[in-house]
Amino acid sequence: MKNSTTPTTTAPVPAVVEGPAPPPPAETAAPPVARAKRSRTILVKLAIGWLAVVVLLAVFADLLPIPGYDVRIGRPAMGPSWDLASLLGTDGLGRSTLSRLIYGARVSLAVGVVSVLIGMVIGGVLGLLAGYLRGGFEKVVTILTDSLLAYPPLVLLLAITSTLGSSLRSLVISLGLLCVPTFTRLARANTLAFAQREFVTASRALGGRPLRIIFREILPNVVLPVASYAFVMAAVVIVAEGSLSFLGLGIPPPSPSWGGMISAAKDRLATQPHLVFIPAAAMFLTIFALNVVGDRARTRFDVRESAL
């Protein structure tokens, strides 16, 4: 007798298609992020390098082998040549454009730095006191700050400079007063945030006086965002100084400034455009570098603040 067996059927095995495995999402997203970060790093280094060159040239202008900014070296509106004194040509009075550009950088940077320091010190102190003391003092500071911010900046500058006269001191004072409201609001906002921190509460519970808490506990933390914003404000001040010099209310001649150089050469734009474009390019690169460095500084502060 034969054993009968039931035939069994097996399901067909699907064929495996060989091919490269798709890369994980992280591998496809990492290179663009890395390239963007590398580009930002290179841009920041270039900005810092440009600012370092401008500052060094402005500080050591008297030691450079260039003529004085008011010395005539050739015929008016002469084109660039290989001679160092006339490397960028001459202006409408035959003076070295390179020399006036370097000495103009000294004036523009001095106005920007000193004005921002005045605004940062006065505005920072007012913002610290208003943010910590609160009450009536805060209301008075807020009203004054909002009133100055509501007034058109250019009109305010024109009013102050026309009253005090066209001089370096009056220009620095007027631009410094214009910076005060911005730094006041910035310092007040950061003071309000840090005044609720545990270390401030502990210092207050241990009997610390208000002034000691403000300048020993809160001030070191508020300095970082205020100082990082100072680069952006310096760029704004340089633009304002150039605008006033272009309107004839800035640094009086023969002292050079970038805005004054542009204003003096605006009538020669059709025939000698380099007299306008050279100081305009120097101002543009300096303002752009200050904004790049300021953004980088604020980014570093934000990262540090989030890690607290």
UniProtKB/TrEMBL annotation:
It is found in: Cell membrane. GO terms for biological process: transmembrane transport. It is a multi-pass membrane protein. The keyword Transcription regulation does not apply. InterPro entries: BP-dependent_transpt_permease (IPR050366), MetI-like (IPR000515), MetI-like_sf (IPR035906). Belongs to the binding-protein-dependent transport system permease family. This is Peptide/nickel transport system permease protein. Residues 1-32 are annotated as: Disordered. Residues 1-19 have a biased composition (Low complexity). Gene3D superfamilies: MetI-like. The keyword Transmembrane helix applies. GO terms for cellular component: plasma membrane. The lineage of its organism: Bacteria, Bacillati, Actinomycetota, Actinomycetes, Pseudonocardiales. Residues 105-294 form the ABC transmembrane type-1 domain. Keywords: Cell membrane, Membrane, Transmembrane, Transmembrane helix, Transport.
